[in-house]
Specification:
With about 120 residues, the protein is of the alpha/beta class. The protein is built from 4 helices and 4 strands; from the N terminus they run H-E-H-E-H-E-E-H. The chain is globular, with a radius of gyration of 14 Å. About 25% of the residues are buried.
């Protein structure tokens, strides 16, 4: 997670993420999503994963770090890879950046998957 943040900062500039709306696809336990908000200054981050157990772990981690509140800059949502994500409330707004730390190796057609985001 820290390496991904470093690479993003190198690629687009250290302050480029400030205030951005970020989608983290395949967020797992939420480490990258949390770091994007805390270290890199993203305005809001939506972390998604197909595993409800990972989403629960991510929410627990967020609540431990940030406190239990409805107004978090980081939200976590369980979604299926083949789900029509355009119907989810989190997708009504656009994202400035989409990241995926560890999901692409699980996707059969990476090009189609990226286009669907």
């Amino acid at each position: 997670s820290e390496l991904v943040c470093e690479k993003l900062e190198q690629a687009i500039g250290k302050s480029a993420l400030l205030g951005m709306r970020v989608l983290d696809v395949g967020c797992g336990a939420g480490a990258l999503a949390m770091m994007l908000a805390e270290r890199c200054g993203a305005g809001s981050v939506v972390g998604t994963d197909i595993s409800s157990k990972m989403i629960e772990a991510a929410q627990k981690r967020r609540d431990e770090v940030c406190g239990a509140s409805e107004n978090h800059a980081v939200r976590f949502v369980c979604v299926e890879l083949d789900e029509d994500t355009t119907r989810l409330p989190e997708w009504k707004e656009k994202f400035d950046l989409v990241v995926s730390g560890s999901v692409m190796h699980c996707v059969q057609d990476a090009d189609a998957f990226v286009r669907s985001l």
